Amino acid sequence: MVETMQHWLDKQADLSPNRIAIEQPNRESVTFSQLRDKAKSFARKLASQGVKSGNHIAIYATNSIEMITAIHSLSYIGAIAVLLNTRLSNTEVAFQLKDANVSLVLSSENLLEKASLIENSGTSVKSFEQINKLAELDTELKREICLEDLCTIIYTSGTTGLPKGVQHSYGNHWWSAISSALNLGLSDNDRWLVALPLFHVGGLSILMKSIIYGMPVYLLEKFDVDQVHHGIVERNVTIVSVVSIMLVRLIEKLGVQTYPKTLRCMLLGGGPASKSLLEQAKSHGIPVFQTYGMTETSSQIATLSPKDALTRLGSAGKALFPAQLKIVNNAQVSPVNEIGEIFVKGLMVTSGYLNNDKADKMAFQNGWLATGDLGYLDDEGFLYVMDRRKDLIISGGENIYPAEVESVLDSIQGVAEAGVIGSEDDRWGQIPIAFIVKNKKSLDEKEIVDYCLQHLAKFKVPKRVYFVDALPRNASNKLVRHKLINLLPTE
Amino acid sequence: MVETMQHWLDKQADLSPNRIAIEQPNRESVTFSQLRDKAKSFARKLASQGVKSGNHIAIYATNSIEMITAIHSLSYIGAIAVLLNTRLSNTEVAFQLKDANVSLVLSSENLLEKASLIENSGTSVKSFEQINKLAELDTELKREICLEDLCTIIYTSGTTGLPKGVQHSYGNHWWSAISSALNLGLSDNDRWLVALPLFHVGGLSILMKSIIYGMPVYLLEKFDVDQVHHGIVERNVTIVSVVSIMLVRLIEKLGVQTYPKTLRCMLLGGGPASKSLLEQAKSHGIPVFQTYGMTETSSQIATLSPKDALTRLGSAGKALFPAQLKIVNNAQVSPVNEIGEIFVKGLMVTSGYLNNDKADKMAFQNGWLATGDLGYLDDEGFLYVMDRRKDLIISGGENIYPAEVESVLDSIQGVAEAGVIGSEDDRWGQIPIAFIVKNKKSLDEKEIVDYCLQHLAKFKVPKRVYFVDALPRNASNKLVRHKLINLLPTE
């Protein structure tokens, strides 16, 4: 059966025309009917540039109403939004544009200069403002959404080092939004603060919830501890999505104060949180709900529910209602309390990677996604995530795959071998550090870092470089990353 | 894509094992894990009787935990529940059993005697208690639900007089539950009172919501004004589904009292309500949300939302988020404020009637269901229902099709012609009354009523019979029902 619905933004504008859709500090708010009008107008202007259904259009922007408008406008055309991480290097962006066959990059004004460097790779770049100056083409826009149609593509790094385009259908986003509502409940008073970048699925998913629930979003350009604090204390925000480092800073800012009762949920994702951080939050009365999810699951797929939040500290909860979860060890489902690989299943899970059969084959088994993450279920079915994907480094909520950094290091003249691991860091959770065997005496740390800065997003660049004689390798000569830690100089 | 989920009751029992699933006055409550255990046990006992996936099993019962257990147990087997209206005559029930190819009728204890009369039609009847005494068969039960699979069948009378089996897939029930949550919101404190019979979709849909939301149901065997009042005032019920006559009686009972703030929604369905009733409710501070729906839409498809309830008295609101609605006149979409036939579309709408291509062809047009009901949309998209399906009589929330009653009347010896309409009634909304042209002098009202009582549910039996000389007919000799009213004796 083809599952269709009225276009979500049209529908919400019909249901709640005058309700606030987006509120921002120091900018005028936008209602659902205004957002619909903006998005449709933008769509007709894009159409005048030849943008058509099925086209892949990249968005390269910091959080703003214009970015949200652009994302929704593409759905009116039936074009697919490829959301680019603005922290990536030009080389990384160029790879994604080519891999996703992007025909146009839409950029926010403040990034246009940076974006124009992308243009050298051959893809046309236009700012939101440039599009807005165009005349509208009188063209038929989509009135209905088909749930199985492709909506967005977001790249995620793989263990092999080459990023993979995660495809989200409208249905994936729909089921993600509904799953979250079934867990957190849904109130007319809800206002969800977005400080996560909208190019990550954690941020994007809140936009989808906004138009599906009819819920105002309190939008920040980026995480700013004072603005988030203000939103919670003064602007009646009820839900905030954060990663660990944001929570750390909010607690610092909070001091001996407590948040008002209006804050009902601080949704904590983007990697494991330390027990001490969770306990600190608890002692401050912050309603932290730990979550587990990834780009492939269109945001959270397991979350600690309100009723269990206080008694199950450290758990990411149970799989959301429409989702399933199992722990697998040697192709067998693991017994209770035994660590194994986390497998997930559900209608919010991507149906596959863009043009990447190999990655699909590795990831999917009988409708289940093998996440590569390690964890266990306790005797009541609560999930405890032990380690994110093998060797994955999570720094301030961003994923870093050692293999990707190593392959850049390997390409530096003078580097014979390179190994990268994460090192604990109070501020960022983890930071990447590198171990290098060099074959050119003069090579120094600065040279290495400079080269990396040209080819990698800044957050992926090793924060410390150690020159060593040899890397630990196993019998088949494979790098044994977990032994790298032993090479650290003892001080 | 095949859309599967973990079995809903298993899932909710995993998520909220100790939460109350069903509460009843003067009976012990049942938690979700207990309900799951009961339903699985009952399923294994049914399996011992040869009940298999795909079988059509009728339920003939008054509201009870046993009835709920039986309904859920069938989903563990993959059998389809045919929900019988216990108010129907044996002839009517026999038709449905045959039409739906029912292999077994499950009856509540209190109806077993009545049900055993059904057995004469050749279908085996067992009470819940009889099944409960059996040993369990060790058989594999369903772990997953496939949304496109058939879940329930509920008969609805058609304009032609012959009832049609409305097929509800799991997906229909799912989308109905989600649609309602998106409109009414979802709170951890919710407790939904069920006084409607569970064999109607309005009652059944609350069971589905219960296991999908993890929400306790406050179950009454039948509508009892004192018990409903008690539930609202003493037992923290937050939502109640009612039909007009129930609301009338609740307001009488309420007197000068008001309900506690815990009652957040009185969902009013089952036919149009008079403006004076709605105003009375408003003056008592009762949060009435008028709805529009039918068996084919798996309960409400349009509902006045909380934010519009007070300003749009008399409207049934807007189509729920995943639903669409249009008004059609002469095959054209009607302009604003113009009355036409109501068409609906959405994933909660049945995909068709059981083995009834003719009815399907009449009802469905390009994915839209032609409801036969008349109404209009105002300039802001609010639906006003003017008349339910052509000539439909709604009495105490039960549908009565004149054609069905007329065809029984026509079969009485001595009746030459018969016409049936609804007459306004303070208590029931409407009651059926009959106009008869007789060709046997001795025929009297008692004879007619007695005959009807044998062949029709009591609520369908004409409450008054008028003997007339001729019925109003049009040029093609078709009965013109709306002119029957002119034949009423003037007093």
TrEMBL record, chains A, B:
InterPro entries: AMP-bd_C (IPR025110), AMP-bd_C_sf (IPR045851), AMP-binding_CS (IPR020845), AMP-dep_synth/lig_dom (IPR000873), ANL_N_sf (IPR042099), MenE (IPR010192). It comes from the Bacteria. Keywords: ATP-binding, Ligase, Menaquinone biosynthesis, Nucleotide-binding. The keyword Glycosyltransferase does not apply. GO terms for molecular function: o-succinylbenzoate-CoA ligase activity. It catalyses: 2-succinylbenzoate + ATP + CoA = 2-succinylbenzoyl-CoA + AMP + diphosphate. Residues 10-354 form the AMP-dependent synthetase/ligase domain. The keyword Nucleotide-binding applies. It is an enzyme of class 6 (ligase). Its EC number is 6.2.1.26. Residues 404-478 form the AMP-binding enzyme C-terminal domain. Pathway: Quinol/quinone metabolism; menaquinone biosynthesis; Quinol/quinone metabolism; 1,4-dihydroxy-2-naphthoate biosynthesis; 1,4-dihydroxy-2-naphthoate from chorismate: step 5/7. Belongs to the ATP-dependent AMP-binding enzyme family. MenE subfamily. PANTHER family: ACYL-COA SYNTHETASE, MEDIUM-CHAIN ACYL-COA LIGASE ACSF2, MITOCHONDRIAL. This is 2-succinylbenzoate--CoA ligase.
